[in-house]
Amino acid sequence: MQIGHGPPSRRQAMFGGHGEVLVWDLLAGQAAPPFTSVLSCVLEAGGHVGRHVQQRDSEIVIGLTGCGEATVDGRPQPFGPGTVVFLPFRSTLELRNERADAPLRYLIVKATPAAAESTPAPGS
């Protein structure tokens, strides 16, 4: 199953992980506020997207096929078809494809954080 048209962007060792991630930009530059991007991604067998912070947007990650693990703010959880992971602005994510013989496919939907989410915490 491929979701996306045309050639993908090929990214190696994302955020200090390992393996290749294919990324299709499904909005293709179209404005769709409050959504800032919709990405279709394929993480190669055994691949790993390293830990990274949601620096600009909130996002949800939706599992399509495969078997993996999503670690959000240090808490691991199973990730696969039908799984939806919510990542508030400033949270961290790490993704692992636990299969050595099949890719992990997922969608990422990013949106501008709600006003309460984007307000700095007192003392920060």
- Strands of the largest sheet, in order across it? 1-2-3-10-5-8
Fraction in beta strands? over 45%
How widely separated are the two ends? 44 Å
Mean pLDDT across all amino acids: 89
Tell me the structural class: mainly beta
Largest sheet: 6 strands, antiparallel
Radius of gyration equals 14 Å
Q: What is the 3D form? A: globular
Helix count equals 1
Pfam family, one: Cupin_2
Protein name: Cupin domain-containing protein
Organism: Nannocystis punicea
Domain Cupin type-2: 42-109
Features:
single chain; 124 residues; mainly beta; 4-stranded antiparallel beta sheet; RmlC_Cupin_sf; Cupin_2; Cupin domain-containing protein; RmlC-like_jellyroll
Can you give a write-up of this model?
By secondary structure, the protein is mainly β. 3% of the residues lie in helices and 49% in strands. It contains one helix and ten strands, in the order ββββββββββα. Strands 1-2-3-10-5-8 form a six-stranded antiparallel sheet, with no helix packed on it. A four-stranded antiparallel sheet has the order 4-9-6-7, with no helix packed on it. It is globular. The model has no long low-confidence stretch (mean pLDDT 89). It comes from Nannocystis punicea. InterPro entries: Cupin_2 (IPR013096), RmlC-like_jellyroll (IPR014710), RmlC_Cupin_sf (IPR011051). Residues 42-109 form the Cupin type-2 domain. This is Cupin domain-containing protein.
